[in-house]
TrEMBL record, chain A:
Family, similarity comment: Belongs to the amidase family. GatA subfamily.
Record's function text: Allows the formation of correctly charged Gln-tRNA(Gln) through the transamidation of misacylated Glu-tRNA(Gln) in organisms which lack glutaminyl-tRNA synthetase. The reaction takes place in the presence of glutamine and ATP through an activated gamma-phospho-Glu-tRNA(Gln).
Quaternary assembly: Heterotrimer of A, B and C subunits.
Organism (species): Arthrobacter wenxiniae
Amidase domain ranges (all copies): 27-477
EC number assigned by the record: 6.3.5.7
Coiled-coil zones: none
Protein name from the UniProt record: Glutamyl-tRNA(Gln) amidotransferase subunit A
TrEMBL record, chain B:
Region (Disordered): 273-293
Pfam families linked: GatB_N (PF02934), GatB_Yqey (PF02637)
Family under the similarity heading: Belongs to the GatB/GatE family. GatB subfamily.
Domain Asn/Gln amidotransferase: start-end pairs: 351-498
Provenance organism: Arthrobacter wenxiniae
Protein name as it appears in the record: Aspartyl/glutamyl-tRNA(Asn/Gln) amidotransferase subunit B
Alphabetized PROSITE patterns for the sequence: GATB (PS01234)
InterPro entries: Asn/Gln-tRNA_amidoTrfase_suB/E, Asn/Gln-tRNA_Trfase_suB/E_cat, Asn/Gln_amidotransferase, Asn/Gln_tRNA_amidoTrase-B-like, GatB, GatB_Yqey_C_2, Gln-tRNA_amidoTrfase_suB_CS, Gln_synth/guanido_kin_cat_dom
């Protein structure tokens, strides 16, 4: 098997080849490092990675190979590499949150999910690009330049987790971690033709994910197949005593559900408010085809109404900035990260904090901090934050009512396919509308999954199909998702990502670490 | 420092009715901090008792310290508060470098304890009920030290150092309702209230309760109004008054200062004040309006705290006897007068006397030793009597030696010296120093004969019936025997020698 074929395998296939001894983890990691070197950098590079963790990834891979050679029982995904969104803190690698204010900052501790990746011995390839502090739907708000969509390098990869989605779509990593506050895993998944899951709120520890909106944030898997996301969620999920909001009884059996592959007799609800007007024709068409496929597989498709979803976006843009304004207060130049002194005038602490935040934060971050500060101000709290929380309750009730009628809900993930870089950069409201279908899940804490539903006929770009399940019922997403995935692949004659144009690979310079790889591989033997 | 004019306290009291209010912050002595596993230890190397959570690094989340919640409930129960079955935390937001997250995690709308009261007994026995508005949980800030500049304050400092060891230490803030009707007792009540809170939290074992270390910190609110008016005057809040005497003095000073300002027809500025121990006065801090906007909102990283009735009752069963009731019980048991008992309390010797009585001494003897010889020696050594090194067992043993006639009071004092000099137990000291009472009648008789011969006129008076003159002869005998005689036996022998009925 060539390196080209190897990196196109699913994580589950890679794991099987590692287990059978067909490949080594060092080979697998090196193939991905080579791919990153070939497609990620340069003026027309994908720019999915902010940091590549070459040495550590190869060292972990070599260690896995040695342990496997010694007959040690290893985790199923041991040796399978992964990329981590740069909002999640890692020891030994910088964590920037896509912001200048954290440029070069090294966390002294690992996020819980990172500890779990290390415990499973998954080599971490590096840190992926994102909109600054995860605020955006296009990754254009990164302080380190936008990530490009592997389907069309002039288009956005979605956001905020455009780096993780693009890395997986460009075969730079088989798996990645994302975070999803209003759609930051799912919307990038939709526009890059990949799979992404926002688990039930509390199913995965948030400890070590730099908070945007604490009550909405959730870490989740990014992958190319439904099964791979299930396998990854099983690695990162579970109760964490360091996160008070983490569930004590998170759902299990996710990979089993993905392997079950059966929707006969399941009730699937179309959300009346989340398709039709405002949705691109090609998106609507692929969505309708998905319904037909599921119906053909024996599912009962019905329409349900969630009348308060229309208020979700407005309420979200009060709750999210309110919490963000508070969570981002700690970035003041006093203890860590960038510190800027005022150009002139006295050096008081207030003025140093002000100068640091003025220089360190980008416009979208400042916009949300100002919005949130305003919404929480005395005299406005009830009208804004208070009302938004009431809307949130109504959305939760809509979900509760809907899930009394159906097992899962279905909708398009995003209203459009990937738009051009720069197209919506100066129109925040248009940008915010990308998340109209994903936000309700965050507002209610329920899990959501996106998978590729085919390509839109008008632009040949991928369309995302979203599945939503009741809280703690993440397994249902994997069960229905895996069935729909196989039906769509059968219809399209293979994975949707196979239809993505090949990226031009720049000539890979001999990598310095090759010597190191050979020695460690030898030691492993 | 202060240029404020003041009027005499008496003059202020003639015209104005003071209203008080207190916010007392109690640092809990839990092993770890309020929301992190970092150690809660005072006095260590700066910034050594910290971890990523109490430093507020990116990505961290708080977890509530269950022990701190229990301590808070105990304080609430001791203050006769209701305990909320369900309560939440909130973020109080303000930018300041001693607060790593630039918000303090506190409680806002639903404190864990509310609607309580405490009876404060003043020195003359007057009991004053103080109503408690709430007692809520929060975290302490780090400690700033302003370097350079004359005042040690941030204004004029060259730079400031911050120690985050205190950042995240669990606090309970106890807030009173407005205290009306204290009149001229207001300063005394202020001191007594803070003393009572300190005693309660110490007695509960939930705080080290050392004011000099900031374990108990008082913000004292004072306002004045003309007598008969219902509406409160504008208040000032004197921050961090950190000794009992300072609380009393600060309240007295603010009353005097307010009165002078009001007398001059000027309105009081609503502000914080800083207390200065050196000048015994306050200076202006920052303006404080009731509408300070801290942009409170519910802490989204913490789930609500649920206190079940079983949990609260289990904690209630752990409550020690309330300090006021304990004092009443002990005074009654010991039969001390009010004055005697107050002296014992003021000397801080209630615990020692209780232990000494429990070990077998009479209450009178325990008081005699602790308030007498031990207190006197402690004063000379400039230490607390309790810290001198005398144990209740020593007092009991000395008393037993006296009762058995082995030593007398005068010798007992020498025994105490011996014990303090490390010569062993009282019995060992008696043995080593040869302090046993001379009880050999033969030896005594010789001394008596000698003393009678030396003072024939006194001997004659005694023979003539002036039995009280016997003291002079006893004194002579004691002198000769260097005090090692049983004075009672000496008296008997003298009277027998002279053929007089005692």
């Amino acid at each position: 098997m060539t390196a080209h074929e190897l990196i196109r395998s699913s994580a589950a296939e890679m794991a099987a080849k590692l287990a059978s001894g067909e490949i080594t983890s060092v080979e697998l990691v090196q193939a991905h490092l080579d791919r990153i070197a070939a497609v990620d950098g340069g003026e027309r590079g994908v720019n999915a990675f902010l940091h590549v963790n070459t040495e550590e990834a190869l060292a972990v891979a070599a260690d896995v190979d040695a342990r496997r050679a010694a007959g040690e029982q290893l985790h199923e995904l041991a040796g399978v590499p992964i990329a981590v969104k740069d909002l999640i803190v890692t020891k030994g690698q910088p964590t920037t949150a896509g912001s200048k204010i954290l440029e070069g900052w090294m966390s002294p501790y690992d996020a819980t999910v990172v500890k779990k990746l290390r415990a499973a011995r998954m080599p971490i390839l590096g840190k992926t690009n994102l909109d600054e502090f995860a605020m955006g739907s296009s990754t254009e708000h990164s302080a380190y330049g936008p990530t490009r969509n592997p389907w069309d390098l002039d288009r956005i990869p979605g956001g905020s987790g455009g780096g993780s989605a693009a890395a997986v779509a460009a075969f730079e990593a088989p798996l990645a971690l994302g975070t999803d506050t209003g759609g930051s895993i799912r919307q990038p998944g939709a526009v890059t033709g990949t799979v992404g899951v926002k688990p039930t709120y509390g199913a995965v520890s948030r400890y070590g994910a730099i908070a945007m909106a604490s009550s909405l944030d959730q870490i989740g898997p990014v992958s190319r197949t439904v099964l791979d996301s299930a396998l990854l969620q099983e690695v990162i999920g579970g109760h964490d005593p360091f996160d008070s909001t983490s569930l004590t009884d998170p759902s299990t059996g996710l990979a089993d559900a993905a392997r079950l592959g059966n929707v006969a007799g399941m009730k699937i609800g179309i959300i009346k408010e989340l398709h039709g007007e405002g949705y691109q024709a090609g998106v609507e068409n692929r969505f309708n085809e998905s319904l037909e496929l599921l119906r053909g597989a024996g599912a009962d498709i019905v329409e349900v109404s969630c009348p308060n979803f229309g208020y979700a976006l407005g309420a979200y843009y009060l709750i999210m900035p309110s919490e963000a304004s508070s969570n981002l207060a700690k970035f003041d130049g006093v203890r860590f990260g960038m510190r800027r002194l005022p150009a002139e005038g006295p050096l008081t602490i207030e003025r140093v904090m002000g100068a640091t935040r003025a220089a360190g934060f980008g416009d979208e971050v400042k916009r949300r901090i100002i919005l949130g500060t305003y919404a929480l101000s005395a005299g406005y709290y009830d009208a804004y934050y208070g009302s938004a929380q009431k809307v949130r309750t109504l959305i939760q009730r809509d979900f509760a009512a809907a899930f009394e009628q159906v097992d899962v809900l279905i909708s398009p993930t995003a209203p459009t396919t990937a738009f051009k870089l720069g197209e919506k950069l100066n129109d925040p409201l248009a940008m915010y509308l990308n998340d109209v279908a994903t936000i309700p899940a965050n507002m209610a804490g329920v899990p959501g999954l996106t998978l590729p539903g085919g390509l839109a006929e008008e632009d040949g770009l991928p369309v995302g199909i979203q599945l939503l399940a009741p809280a703690r019922e993440d397994a249902r997403l994997y069960r229905v998702g895996a069935v729909l995935e196989s039906l769509i692949e059968a219809q399209w004659g293979g994975p949707i990502l196979d239809r993505a144009p090949s990226l031009v690979e720049t000539v890979v310079e001999p990598v310095e670490t090759l010597d190191y790889v050979e020695t460690t591989a030898k030691e492993a033997n | 420092m202060s240029t404020d004019t003041i009027v005499s306290f008496e003059e202020a009291m003639e015209k104005y009715d003071p209203v008080l209010g207190f916010e007392v912050h109690v640092e809990l002595n839990t092993k770890t901090k309020m929301f992190s596993s970092a150690p809660n230890v005072f006095g260590d190397q700066p910034n050594s008792n910290v971890n990523e959570v109490c430093l507020g690094l990116p990505g961290v989340l708080p977890v509530v310290n269950r022990k701190a919640v229990e301590s808070s409930i105990l304080i609430g129960l001791a203050l006769n508060c209701k305990i909320a079955p369900h309560c939440t935390f909130a973020r109080k937001q303000y930018f300041y470098p001693d607060t790593p997250k630039n918000f303090q995690t506190s409680q806002y709308e639903d404190p864990i304890c509310y609607d309580g009261w405490i009876d404060i007994e003043l020195a003359d026995g007057t009991v004053f009920r103080v109503e408690i508005e709430r007692a809520h949980m929060e975290e302490d800030a780090g400690k700033l030290t302003h370097m350079g500049g004359a005042t040690g304050r941030i204004q004029g400092a060259d730079f400031s150092l911050v120690d985050y060891n205190r950042s995240g230490v669990p606090l309970v803030e106890i807030v009173t309702k407005p205290i009306e009707g204290a009149g001229s007792r207001a300063p005394e009540l202020a001191k007594a209230y803070v003393a009572a809170i300190r005693e309660i939290v110490k007695n509960l074992g939930v705080s080290d309760a050392r004011m000099e270390r900031g374990n108990v910190r008082c913000d004292a609110n004072v306002s004045l109004r003309p007598y008969g008016r219902e509406k409160f005057g504008t208040r000032t809040e004197t921050k961090n008054v950190n000794s009992l005497r300072a609380v009393e003095n600060a309240v007295r000073f603010e009353i005097q200062r307010h009165a002078a300002v009001l007398d001059s027809g000027v309105a009081i500025t609503q502000e914080t004040r800083h207390w200065h121990e050196d000048t015994k006065s306050t200076t202006s801090g920052r303006p404080k309006s009731d509408a300070d906007d801290y942009r409170y909102f519910p802490e989204p990283d913490l789930v609500p705290i649920v206190t079940t009735a079983e949990w609260v009752e289990e904690l209630r069963s752990r409550l020690p006897e309330p300090p006021a009731e304990r004092r009443k019980r002990l005074q009654a048991d010991w039969g001390y007068t009010d004055l005697e008992f107050r002296d014992v309390v003021n000397a801080g010797l209630m615990d020692e006397i209780e232990e000494t009585v429990a070990a077998g001494a009479t209450a009178a003897a325990a008081r005699k030793w602790w308030m007498g010889e031990i207190a006197r020696r402690a004063k000379l050594a400039d230490v607390d009597p309790a810290a001198l090194g005398v144990t209740p067992a020593v007092v009991v043993e000395i008393e037993r030696l006296i009762a058995s006639g082995a030593i007398n009071d005068k010798l007992a004092r020498k025994v105490l010296d011996g014990v303090l000099d490390g010569e062993g137990t009282p019995a060992e000291v008696v043995e080593k120093r040869g302090l046993a009472v001379v009880s050999d009648d033969g030896a005594l008789q010789a001394a008596i004969d000698e003393a009678l011969a030396a003072q024939p006129d006194v001997a004659e008076k005694i023979r003539g019936g002036k039995v009280q003159a016997v003291g002079a002869i006893v004194g002579g005998v004691m002198k000769v025997t260097r005090g090692q005689a049983d004075a009672g036996r000496v008296r008997e022998l003298i009277l027998a020698t002279l053929g007089v009925e005692g």
